[in-house]
Amino acid sequence: MKKILAVMLTVSLAIVCPAGVKAATLDYKAAINKIEAKGTPAVIQYFEDGKGNKGKMVALTGEAYSSSASLKIREHPNIDATSIKSVPFGALVKRVGLCDNGWSKLVIEEDGKKAYGYAESYYLSTDPLIKKMNEKLAVREDSEVLNFPGIRDGLSVGEVSEGDRVDCTGMCSDNWSQISYTNDSGKKVTGFVQNSVLSEIKEEPKDGEKGTEKPEETATESENEQELEEPDALLEGEAVIGPSSEGDDSIWAKAVTENLQDSTEAANAIIVNEGEAVNVSATAKLERLGEFRITHYCACSICCGPYSGMNSTASGAVPVTNHTIAVYPKQIPYGTKVVINGQVYVAEDCGSGIKKNCIDIYVADHEEACSKGMYRTDVYLLIEGNEELEESDS
User: Fold this and answer.
1) Same domain for 335 and 263?
2) Helices (H) and strands (E) in the chain, counts
3) Is the pTM here over 0.85, yes or no?
4) Which helix (H) or strand (E) holds 370?
5) 136 and 114 together in one domain
6) What whole-number distance in Å separates Cα of residue 14 and Cα of residue 65?
């Protein structure tokens, strides 16, 4: 079959949302401009990608952070090269060069030995992605623990139950905390949960000390009050953290409050590009790709974590509703048009949680993403001209 050629574009992710911790990438041209702005000439080297292709690389020594749930460091700067190491989200790596094909050269030091590898620049942030913390918190409700602070890319690494106590080791984006706990098998687990499932643990009064007592409410006052909505049930000794908790001494409570106060402004800053739904022509040539798991995502921090408010995708395209889908690029290259339930979509994005026979459809907001949920259906390649999609088992 003939291949549909896809060009991997280097992306400098522009962030719209001001709140929380965000991923900020650096590309080849931006690196050169940054160096020359300091009055220093950029050092240009050359590389081979392991497939016979050559390119240019600017020497640039500095720290970077993994913005992927599991960042693959490969022998050569191409997606098919052998993986020599994986690093988790937020991990610090040392970068020594930026390639003009969208990859970065990294130095790996283990057991006193130094080696070199390559990772996609899109998944490297120039800013730290986790704000370090050290708090003991309570779990308000059962929840899965993910390896990435976003339901779009996150995969389950464990679960916590209502009543558990966990260590909060960091915060990232508007809605996620990094936690650490010991599971039933005695294994230490580190991952991410939404802030909404956690709450501060209020210290119980010590023996001989009196807690703050609430004044007794009179019957008249109670009768005159309007009926209020019942809050969610809390564990004994817990308090829900919200914008009204500014007087709290908890570092975590203050951090959550700051993010909650910024979230309205952040939500308003997200620019949603609306696209008209395009139905497939009755005369179009289609090729069945198989049954796929279909999910939906938006630009909020619950879905995308540090990439919330994004206005560019992994391919460099601006995400558009009724148009953009996230795919596994080794199976469906960027730019490919596919048909899902009679509607045409274009492969423009990807995600570490999106594997073979999985497609994530970009929608306007989180409510729509939740309402459409997950389902399985047949997906078809829209063939224009004589191009066909190459089958891939990788």
Assistant:
1) no
2) 5, 22
3) no
4) helix 366-372
5) no
6) 17
